[in-house]
Amino acid sequence: MRHLNELISVVKSREKRTLAVAYGQDPHTIEAIGEAVADGFINVKITGDETKIKKVAEEKGVDYSQFEIIHQPNEIDAIKTAVNIVRNKEADFLMKGLCNSANYIRVILNKEKGLISPGEIISHTTVLEVPTYHKLMLCADVAVIPHPDLSQKVKMLQYTVRIAHRLGIEMPKAAILAAVEKVTSKLPATIDAAIISKMQQRGQLKGVLVDGPLAMDLAISKESVKIKGIKSEVAGDADIFIFPDINAGNIAYKTLSHLGGASLAAIVTGANVPCILTSRADSDESKFYSILLGALLS
Questions:
Q1: ∠ CA(29), CA(24), CA(7), 5° rounding?
Q2: DSSP string covering 171-230
Q3: CA dist., res. 130 & res. 137, Å (int)
Q4: Which of 23, 131, 173, 248 has the fewest CB atoms within 10 Å distance of its CB?
Q5: Angle between the N-to-C axes of helices 284-297 and 27-38, in degrees from 0 to 180, rounded to the nearest 10
């Protein structure tokens, strides 16, 4: 798969899934789920203030009768209600609406009533379609883990590889990013990258080709690879981009989205079901593609 709109035909060919939306009373969310339901991709159960949901839907010309609305005007309670719907197997995946991201993640992480299994971590993968790049870019982690350690980066990579496989990328190429391509103790991210690369070479990571540390230009530009004389199966052709921390990842994805004209789909990884997490300012197109990605992965 090289374009996000290819998700449409793939999801349409599968059994319809049910989405639980937490505190879904913002225009972008309602427009996105309205389009997805109208096109026959999903069923929707939505929590939040019923009056506000209906008002926004009417303003945007969305038929709210196609949703099952669960009135829960309190933000935290609305998130908990949506998570319970998923836990009770009344929905296949989860989506964040207008609620605060930290509150959304906190409820998912609850050991007794959340959606996380022992030994797993919550991470985040954004799939970007950038007009100037020749394939989809799967980026982690741009939204959840501030300063991932080595073991967390390995988990992030493994979760993102699974998504790549579901997108039809049989042997994704993963770039473990740093500011430079040389290993140096002055930049700990380069050491983590070198270890992860060696882990793949030794067979500890399956279904992926890994190289690192790689600077961003080496990960995406064959010209940079040629100029710097780097020999790598990954360099210049990466599918997966593992960022050293959330600052680098978040800045990169927002730059590509707002200045680079990228379309995107975003998903929380590591939970028992796909959990959609987009920015409250993301477009309805981004939320729509995220719904399709969640439906594909559920």
A1: 40
A2: S-EEEEE-S-SS--TTSHHHHHHHHHHHHHHTTSS-S-EEEEEE-HHHHH-HHHHHHHT-
A3: 8
A4: 131
A5: 50
Which tokens in the block code for residue 100?
A: 């605060």
Residues of the chain with pLDDT > 90, as a percent, come to: 92
> How does the average pLDDT of the chain come out, rounded?
95
Q: How is domain 123-268 classified at the architecture level of CATH? A: 3-Layer(aba) Sandwich (3.40)
What does the pLDDT look like over 143-193, one tens digit per residue?
Answer: 999 999 999 999 999 999 999 999 999 999 999 999 999 999 999 999 999
- Phi then psi dihedrals of residue 297, to 5 deg: -85, -15
For the chain, the domains span 1-116+271-298, 123-268
CA angle 167, 233, 203 (to 5 degrees): 75
Report residue 280's pLDDT band, with 50, 70 and 90 as the boundaries.
low
Fold type of domain 1-116+271-298? Rossmann fold (3.40.50)
